[in-house]
Structures are given as structure tokens and as C-alpha cells.
Write a structure and sequence with these properties.
By secondary structure, this protein is an all-alpha fold. The chain is built from eight helices and no strands. It has a single domain, classed as Tetratricopeptide repeat domain (Serine Threonine Protein Phosphatase 5, Tetratricopeptide repeat). Helix 1 packs antiparallel against helix 6, helix 4 runs parallel beside helix 6 and helix 7 packs antiparallel against helix 8. The N and C termini lie far apart (45 Å).
Length: 199
């Protein structure tokens, strides 16, 4: 029974991480590549839900080396092959121990295979190098909430996400929803989740 519980927790966590990453990737791509049209959505996700997975734009046929290995690992995550992704990210990390992207993805993939605490360790290393990295913050917040049920600890991480993303986006709506759910589980549902510019 316990084994099934661990597998179920890993499935819930991986689905939340994958969906949340799709949302974040959408906002990052639009923020850096295209000006958003007024009133247009930041991502294809619904305001309260999780969008589908969209991995970083590393072309699978981009030759070998680091780029090719990352593309294969991202494809493994997209397909739910987390164990394969872990091996690939660990190989890439041996070549570049200070890659925030690889540390974050490795942490996410480890969560997908149920190694939640080890995965959080890698995400924390990424955040030590880049405290405002949205992807790493999202992975940490979802992991604390979904896998560890550490609702109080997840709230400041979600609030940091909210301080970094535009208020009207699906990312902000999802983060606010998590803050509300965390407070409800802690018995404090009344306090509103902050947005950008909140103290």
C-alpha cells in the first residue's frame, strides 16, 4: 500500500511540475521574444489550470554534445520517462556543475521518480545561484505543496513567483490558487494572495 502511495505522489508531483513548467515557459518566451498584445493571453493555459508540457527550445537534431543531450532529456521528461531524464541530466551536470537550467531540470526529474528531497537539494542549489529563477521557484513551490504537504513553507515561494510574473497571466492565477489552497489547509483562508507590488 505504501509503495502505491509513493507512486501516486510522484505522479501527482510530476504532472503539476510539467504543467507548471509549460505555463512558465510560455510567459518567459513571450516576455523575451515578442511584445504581448494588449488583452492577449500570456500562455495557452487556462487561468486556473495547468497547461500542457512545453520543453525548452533545444532542437533534437542540433548535433551531439550538451545541446543534443539536453534535448533528449527534455524529451524524456515530456514523455514521462523521468528515470532516463535523470541519467541524462546527471551526465550533463558533470560537465557544467553551475548550470541553473540543468540543476532545476534534474531536481524536477528526481521528483518524478519519487526522490523528492534529493530533487529539492538540486533546486535549492539552482536558487542559490539565481534566486529569481521562475522555473526553479515553481518547481520548489509545487514540490513543497504537492509532494511534501509543507503548505506554510510553500507560501513564500509562491509569493515570490507572484512578485515576478505579470498579474493578469495564467501563471499568476495558478500561483494565487496555490496560495489560497495552502492557507485553507492551514486554516487561514481569508488573507488574499499578494500580487505584483504588494508588500
Amino acid at each position: 500500500m505504501r509503495l502505491w502511495g509513493n507512486r501516486r505522489a510522484a505522479l501527482v508531483l510530476s504532472a503539476a511540475l510539467i504543467g507548471g513548467f509549460g505555463l512558465l515557459l510560455g510567459v518567459l518566451i513571450l516576455a523575451f521574444e515578442e511584445p504581448r498584445q494588449e488583452g492577449g493571453p500570456m500562455t495557452g493555459g487556462s487561468a486556473g489550470g495547468m497547461a500542457g508540457m512545453a520543453m525548452p527550445s533545444v532542437t533534437a537534431g542540433a548535433g551531439g554534445g550538451r545541446a543534443g543531450e539536453l534535448a533528449a532529456a527534455h524529451a524524456d521528461v515530456e514523455a514521462g520517462r523521468f528515470a532516463q531524464a535523470v541519467s541524462a541530466y546527471e551526465r550533463v551536470l558533470r560537465e557544467d556543475m553551475h548550470s541553473v537550467e540543468v540543476l532545476t531540470h534534474l531536481g524536477m526529474a528526481l521528483g518524478g521518480v519519487g526522490e523528492v528531497d534529493r530533487g529539492l537539494g538540486y533546486v535549492d542549489r539552482a536558487l542559490a545561484m539565481d534566486p529569481d529563477n521562475l522555473h526553479a521557484l515553481w518547481v520548489k513551490a509545487v514540490t513543497l505543496f504537492e509532494a511534501k504537504a509543507q503548505y506554510a513553507e510553500s507560501i513564500p515561494v509562491w509569493e515570490r513567483v507572484l512578485a515576478l510574473v505579470p498579474e493578469s497571466t495564467a501563471e499568476a492565477a495558478t500561483a494565487r490558487g496555490y496560495v489560497l489552497r495552502a492557507r485553507e489547509r492551514l486554516g487561514d483562508p481569508q488573507r488574499p494572495a499578494p500580487g505584483k507590488g504588494s508588500p
